[in-house]
Amino acid sequence: MPFAALLGPRSTNSTERFSLEVRTSRAATYSDREPIRLGARLKFNGPGEATTLEGLGVGLVLFDIHQVDGAIQLPAVWPDECREYELQRGQSYDASYAKSGSFDEGSPDRPFYRTFFNDPELSLPAGQWRITARVEAREGSCGGDGEQIDLVVSLMLSVTSAADPAGN
Which region holds residue 46: left if phi is over 0, alpha if psi is between -120 and 50, else beta? Predict the structure, then answer.
């Protein structure tokens, strides 16, 4: 889903040079059977007309999902590869959430993780969830020693049971 179509709750973190925003597809409350769409936008605000960022091969934005009232943790997982991204001033780099990760077969939450990774949609069980988008990049070319860019932004989602929409 294009970032501009994500009309739900949003959260933003900015520095003088960059801003990062995370959004969902609609309200801050979802049903446990309802797909959730997530996206993030990184923007270069200048100075200068453009900058090159050394980022990950999977993209500049990583997403973490953590159950606040439970034990499920879905941190971003990425390969150890470098890619260069050129951003023009005012131009945005948009990223959609894509599942990545692994889990311990001995985990008591193994059934959830298996179901989660086998389903192409992002659906979460009932509970309170923190969605975090983060950028960990460096200005310049791969292997360079440019300025580190660290931006983190989070928002909270509530997921109710489809059997009990009031969340009781």
Answer: left
Predicted pLDDT of residue 65? 94
- The matching CATH number, chosen from 2.120.10.30, 2.60.120.380, 2.60.40.2360, 3.60.10.10, for 3-160 is 2.60.40.2360
Burial code of 24-58, b = ≥16 C-beta within 10 A, e = fewer?
bbeeeebbeebebbbbbbbbbeeeeeebbbbbbeb
Tell me the sheet residues that pair with 147.
none
Tell me the C-alpha distance between 24 and 33, whole Å.
Answer: 16
Task: Kindly report the pTM of this predicted structure.
Answer: 0.87
Residue 79, burial from CB neighbour count under 10 angstroms (0-12, 13-18, 19+): exposed
d(CA 85, CA 60): 8
What order do you get walking across the sheet with 10-14 strand by strand?
A: 10-14, 18-24, 38-44, 92-96
The pLDDT confidence band at residue 166, using thresholds 50, 70 and 90, is: low
